[in-house]
Amino acid sequence: MRIYLVSTNPNKAREISSILPTGFTVEPLTVLGESGAVEENGDTYLQNAVKKLEGFLHLRLPLIADDSGLEVQFLDGKPGVHSARFLGDTSFEEKMRGILSRMCGVSNRTARFVCVAAFTDCEGDYLAVEGIVRGTISNEIRGEQGFGYDPIFIPEGANKTFAELGPEFKSKLSHRARAFRRLFSLLSLYSEHRS
Amino acid sequence: MRIYLVSTNPNKAREISSILPTGFTVEPLTVLGESGAVEENGDTYLQNAVKKLEGFLHLRLPLIADDSGLEVQFLDGKPGVHSARFLGDTSFEEKMRGILSRMCGVSNRTARFVCVAAFTDCEGDYLAVEGIVRGTISNEIRGEQGFGYDPIFIPEGANKTFAELGPEFKSKLSHRARAFRRLFSLLSLYSEHRS
Hints:
2 copies of one chain form a homodimer. By secondary structure, chain A is an alpha/beta fold.
């Protein structure tokens, strides 16, 4: 089953491709330019993921999309669903510095990454699943790999950030990997049922 | 599997119960009072159905919800996703009269009812499906059964309105029946996979 990913982020396509089960291929939706990004103005990850799919139903192609965020307990779950727009139109470097400065000297560093991955066949069927990874916020920005908030997030059981641990670790244990792995597991079942 | 329906409309619960496959029971969510209705301010049926589910995730119960609308071709698909609020805070009698007066003498009476039915296990998994029934708008309000716009909708192949045809017909062929029948078919598969 060839599925198209609604995202302008090449890192996402790479992460998802690394966990694909046999029988599936994922390609970025090439009609998406820089201007093709869907406004992420939903109240929840699921609403945003659904909006991304709904923007391209007219293509009549099997589509996947996701939305994700970092939820910091001390910041009442922020930046959360607004992760990409936290502190406005700034770089992730600045957003991460913003979080670290707000948490200077704070001992409760509990956080989690949440991802909702969604699929539609563009014929009226939808599947969506949530993936979560728990962890803590580091004291400083560390590591060069990954993207977004990866350099300040230390997953449970590790002592390095996602950006230090790199893609192999993330393809096993990240929120996105967990969400898409479950999504593809449901999709396998779903496509058997349809064929 | 016992599933709870997020709706304050007793007609919906009755319609859905009439098409339940064995192994499933559906109960209205009793915590919903008149004030429990979720604001249907999404841009699509799916967004509204998702919002209804998301309002009650804290209950940690298997939930279903739906959103539906009547789409009249001559009215550019209106009332559509705004079916319940078409012409503001008026009765369905008034809403139907509003549609009929706008279509007085119009020969293109093509219309369709659309329903999106959605499920969540409240643990992060979501399924949603769309059901459609095509038909035409009658010249006058006819029939006493059903609810909403049923008295002005004549399904394809029939010469009576949904409100004249009654619940047995609707449980076979309505947009809601089609959506929920497919949803329960996916759910059967899903629950086998989980158990």
